[in-house]
Specification:
Blueprint: E1 11-22, E2 25-37, E3 42-47, H1 53-61, E4 68-73, E5 76-77, E6 85-88, H2 100-106, H3 114-127, H4 143-155, E7 161-165, H5 173-190, E8 193-197, H6 201-207, E9 210-214, E10 221-226, H7 238-251
Parallel strand pairs: 3-8, 3-9, 6-7, 7-8
Antiparallel strand pairs: 1-2, 1-4, 4-5, 9-10
Helix pairs in contact: 2-3, 2-4, 6-7
This protein binds adenosine-5'-triphosphate and magnesium ion.
Adenosine-5'-triphosphate (ATP) is lined by residues 20, 22, 29, 47, 49-55, 217.
EC number: 3.6.3.-
Enzyme class: hydrolase
GO molecular function: ATP binding; ATP hydrolysis activity
Length: 263
Amino acid sequence: MNTKDSNHLPLIIKKLHKSYKIDSDTVDVLEDINLTVRPGEFISIVGASGCGKSTLLRLIIGLEKNYQGQILHGDKPIKGPSSDRGMVFQQARLFPWLTVEKNIEFGIVGKLSEVEKTKIIEEHIELVGLKGFEKAYPHQLSGGMQQRVSIARALVNRPDVLLLDEPFGALDALTRINMQQEILRIWQAEKTTMILVTHDIDEAIYLGDRVLVISNRPGKIKKNIPVELSRPRERSDYDFVRIRKEIYREFFTQEEKNLEYFI
Ligand SMILES: Nc1ncnc2c1ncn2[C@@H]1O[C@H](COP(=O)(O)OP(=O)(O)OP(=O)(O)O)[C@@H](O)[C@H]1O
Ligand SMILES: [Mg+2]
């Protein structure tokens, strides 16, 4: 696979503030976010609905340009979308009229010969385990398979950073666990920096080198919880359960903490 000079660069966020204007009101969405993501690190982000998680990913990918503070990829400020950063959304967002291979081809940025294109598409179909489905249309695939196509499309330019915004939210529990394995396999093979937003706390712990808990609006990094567990991880391990409790505690108010018994 082709590698890029920009591979293995840290992502640095300094004093990031983001607000939106709705009518004449200013809504502060993110406040004083400071974060350094090591090259190849896997970060999970959790937080209540509306706390600014998707906004943070959109800022990192370069879709939102109006903000205060700094977002650097290596030493370069992020000024817009780039093939160095890929994004996977909750819904696969495939073109229904294009086959698997054409959907993946659509993600390729830059001029490549037909031979190079074919090779890259083949490699990515293999990477996400969809060999044999090259000519299938999205409606002929399961939800999990469609999501694999969108992961392949996001990886096709060998991005340095892959942003995942609740990518498995629409999948059933078993497919979800399979996809988590798949993402880990890709991460270990490609050494891509991963930033995953999820509502599933077990998923956050299972995958992440650390879990960031974002507070309610305005979103701030409330807690940075390292997950120092070797892989493959076991969801019923004592330390896994301990971290799960630690994260749940961040979500609960004092009264709700009495619910701890149920976790
Ligand atoms: N384009 C926009 N214009 C105005 N406000 C916006 C815009 N996009 C997001 N917001 C506001 O920013 C806040 C954070 O939204 P965001 O989508 O980042 O939340 P989230 O943490 O991803 O939530 P969820 O878990 O439900 O996906 C919300 O209050 C939302 O109304
Ligand atoms: Mg969101």
